[in-house]
Amino acid sequence: MKPNGVFRVQPMGKPGRRPRIRNLLRLPCKMPIPSQWVIAPPRKTVVVGVADAAAFNDPSADLVTHWLGSCIGLVLHDPVVRVGALLHAMPPESQLDPERARHNPCMFVDSGIEKALEMFARIGGLAARASIKVAGGAQMLDEKGVFRIGERNFRAVQQSLARLGLTLPAWDVGGVISRTLRLNIATGEVTLHSPGQATRRL
Question: 37, 91, 124, 175: least CB-packed within 10 angstroms?
């Protein structure tokens, strides 16, 4: 075999006579390919940072955000047109700093949800049929629950969605663990991973 991976058929039989190789060449075309040899193409990964949001319409991509502590990660997915959006927001209410919210609405939960829905609609997503899921809201560095920032953030999610007439069918919030949140745009599957734990579906 040469370095380029091309096989050569060595001559057989008497010198000067060309070997019959029709069956040899036709045989591989009839052989089934073992399923374990079929490798799926790699998926694209779009990483959403803190105080940021992204909307994407490529079914070969995943939206992911890392290290959700007391922050809120919210995903939107439209199963009909297969588009998705992901938000990673920190404080609960934009009225805490209206000027900063004006420059970056994704920093706050309430204004961030509105911005994510706007981005979602721009690429064809319909909020009325969207699957909405939320993760985060942990009591990081606040195990005694003095500040309850995670709890306040999740309450802001519920209030904002209720105000917009949207329901929240699934969430994974609270505790004292960080979470990585991933959305598969093709299938709408949402998975979570925390340090020392197995990946789980939401």
Answer: 37
